[in-house]
Amino acid sequence: MIYLDYHATTPCDPRVVEAMLPWLTERFANPHSDSHAAGRQAGEAMAQAIDSIAATIHAPASSLLVTSGATESINLAMRGVLTHPRNRRNHMVVCSTEHPAVLDVAADLQRSGVDVTHVGVHPQGDGDNPLAGTIDLDVLANAITPDTALVNVMLVNNETGVIQPIAEVARIAHAHDALVHCDITQAIGRIPINVSELGIDLVSASAHKFYGPKGIGFLVAGGGERRVRVRPQIVGGGQQQGLRSGTMNPAAIIAMETAIRLAAAAAEPQSEESTRIAGLRDHFWQILNGSIEGLRLNGPPLSEGVWRVPGNLNLHLREIEGETWMAATPGVAFSSGSACSSVNPSASHVLRAMGLSESQARRSVRFGMGRFTTIQEIETAGDELIAAWKRFQLS
Ligand SMILES: Cc1ncc(COP(=O)(O)O)c(C=O)c1O
């Protein structure tokens, strides 16, 4: 199986596994047991790991809450702000291409009386629109009102790899004293991240997207210029300042720390990893585009300096549905939309929001290349995909 689905999840880096293992076996103590040395050792190692995680994204460690992943972080951020007893505002903005983890929480809050405005993105258009898929900042500026508590815009889209202009989003939201929540899940390891420079108030992330284990992530809530109050969604033992109760998992937190440190180095603009992955992605596009007639790129062009991460390729075919192409190429793992919403067979809401027709969205696929993808894999996958496409031309 050639794995080209790095947006859905990534394998654990062996260095991450190595860092994690001792904390599962000989150093297993409860990190909250400060009555004995073993517990204190686990607690201290965990605290150091949290400091380091926060430092890699330039966020204050005191505002970082460890969660089970981005879905939980997003729930805590959105529900936490809107339902906090001291919050007097009842309006929220979401970008229409957000992950379902954001859109579904917004829909749920809306059912309980919160006003929600969806802000669209720049269309794909006919040609190579460099802004395709990025949020329309003029519409955003008009959508925010004095009642807006929170603006939710992700940093990198999980389907198209589009990078959103978050610093601009924050400037617009802050002019109205609204807070900004940014889902950075797909950005870590792909682009450099500086939370304090971007001016974001709340940040959600999940370790399994950057070569860490599944079931662990974090939320940064505040610590910048604006006061952020979140109402806890999980109560119990009062861990993490009572904002997210439950015994913490040192092994997973230490793993996440190793993963994010490696990811931050890999995300540097001219790093060996990001240059190599961008090169593989471009090579793959050339292979497919050279043999398959009528292929079209979804999202901004692939050239350097555009609003798109390396390693992402989203495209649509002229005749065949993505699902059909996938079924005909069982040796390659890729996705016909957002893998995270693959339980939902409807056409991608992200591509539809960019103006693609229902049929174009159904003819779309997403490839994701990452740290362990090789040129041989790219070339073999290309051959298999082209052969499958040719079989449909003959039939
Ligand atoms: C952008 C984005 N946000 C949130 C999530 C949810 O992450 P998790 O399932 O780890 O909670 C995902 C992936 O599934 C994602 O790609």
TrEMBL record:
The keyword Manganese does not apply. Its cofactor is pyridoxal 5'-phosphate. The keyword Transit peptide does not apply. Residues 2-379 form the Aminotransferase class V domain. It comes from the Bacteria. It catalyses: (sulfur carrier)-H + L-cysteine = (sulfur carrier)-SH + L-alanine. Its EC number is 2.8.1.7. GO terms for molecular function: cysteine desulfurase activity; iron-sulfur cluster binding; metal ion binding. Keywords: Iron, Iron-sulfur, Metal-binding, Pyridoxal phosphate, Transferase. Gene3D superfamilies: 1.10.260.50, Aspartate Aminotransferase, domain 1, Type I PLP-dependent aspartate aminotransferase-like (Major domain). PROSITE patterns: AA_TRANSFER_CLASS_5 (PS00595). Belongs to the class-V pyridoxal-phosphate-dependent aminotransferase family. NifS/IscS subfamily. This is cysteine desulfurase. The lineage of its organism: Bacteria, Pseudomonadati, Planctomycetota, Planctomycetia, Pirellulales.
